[in-house]
Amino acid sequence: MAMTPEAKVKKKIKEVLDNMGAYFLQPVGTGFGSNGAPDIVACYKGFFIGIEAKAGKGKTTALQEFNLKRIEGMGGLALIINEANVGELRERIESWVNTATTKM
Fold this sequence. Notes:
By secondary structure, the protein is of the alpha+beta class.
């Protein structure tokens, strides 16, 4: 079965996180989950990261935006990653962690 464009983005995100040594999981969307939760939740060097994966011109929903803003409001990193910026993922995470660490 062929992968959807969004599934390809998620696969690349997970490869980057795995290569970084980050802990991550992909919550399964069921009736028991939280609507609007990020596609991938990660922890890197003690910092919380929520990643919403999109393909093409995919847009986040209002509920996804709400949850990403909540993550940022609590001091975490919230990212929207697609094919165009997945190559910058590692750099964006490490830059944010380094900045957050110097503020401590």
